[in-house]
Amino acid sequence: MNSRCALVSKIIPFSCVDGPGSRLALFLQGCNLRCKNCHNPWTIGRCNDCGECVAQCPHQALSVNGGKVIWRADICQQCDTCLHICPQQATPMAQTMNVEQVLQQVTQVAPFIEGITVSGGEATTQLPFVIALFQALKSTPALSHLTCLVDSNGELPISGWEKLRPVCDGVMVDLKSWDSDRHQALTGRGNARIKQSIQWLAQHGMLSELRLLVIPEHSDYLEEAESLSAFITELGDVPIRLNAFHAHGVYGEAKLWGSAGPTDVEAVSQALQARGITRLIPPALYL
């Protein structure tokens, strides 16, 4: 039995938006960016057992035992009150799971999915677990046909990607802004390492998708279209997914930001196409 563990925020057995086909999506808790526009902001931090959420749970699904916040899934109504009041941008519902426990979940749905995608938070902050999980999947005959993908912010150093490469079938990476200062304002960090990751993954045939999130008045893809297009061209034949920002689920100042509509996304699409970038995937829907 593989006892390597990870802190898991959520498992979605069937997802059609986390990579090609129907996939099991495994969301790991914790992120090394602090994106203002994050649509899963409760996956950023980790519970420090402060207990702030316990008294405010309307269904008494939370308690403190031995200094630890305990979550009772059997009486939880998934009202998300705890998520919205947590000062750590965490969730008391995150569960520690080992590789075998995740494999059991995958096995139950294996006949109906094409693969698994490990997301977050940021999946690569728990890299040893991801590697161990993918190794287990590849070495299990009944599961070895499943593709193993990672949805990442690209902050992992190249040495980490090299460790992941033998067992990973592809990585989807977000480039949230071209300009590093703009990226710092949006996420709390510059994007030099992320650009390096994107280039390395493309060079080694691991970049399955580059994602651009269009945020009216905040993303800079239009004004930086020339440099961005040159960068994308050097990556080779990589699909570029255009996502549309919406304020649903975000915290803080981003709740007041305007959502991206078809006109906003089309403007970016046309700017890239005019510079030879044609393998573009538009948003599946707008909210």
UniProtKB/TrEMBL annotation:
InterPro entries: 4Fe4S_Fe-S-bd, 4Fe4S_Fe_S_CS, Aldolase_TIM, BssD/PflA/YjjW, Organic_radical-activating, Organic_radical_activase, Radical_activat_CS, rSAM. The keyword Iron-sulfur applies. One of its GO terms (molecular function) is metal ion binding. Residues 17-284 form the Radical SAM core domain. Residues 46-67, 68-96 form the 4Fe-4S ferredoxin-type domain. The keyword Metal-binding applies. It comes from the Bacteria. Gene3D superfamilies: 3.30.70.20, Aldolase class I. Keywords: 4Fe-4S, Iron, Iron-sulfur, Metal-binding, Oxidoreductase, S-adenosyl-L-methionine. Its cofactor is [4Fe-4S] cluster. PANTHER family: GLYCYL-RADICAL ENZYME ACTIVATING ENZYME YJJW-RELATED, PYRUVATE FORMATE-LYASE-ACTIVATING ENZYME. Belongs to the organic radical-activating enzymes family. NCBIfam families: activase_YjjW. This is YjjW family glycine radical enzyme activase. It comes from Kluyvera ascorbata.
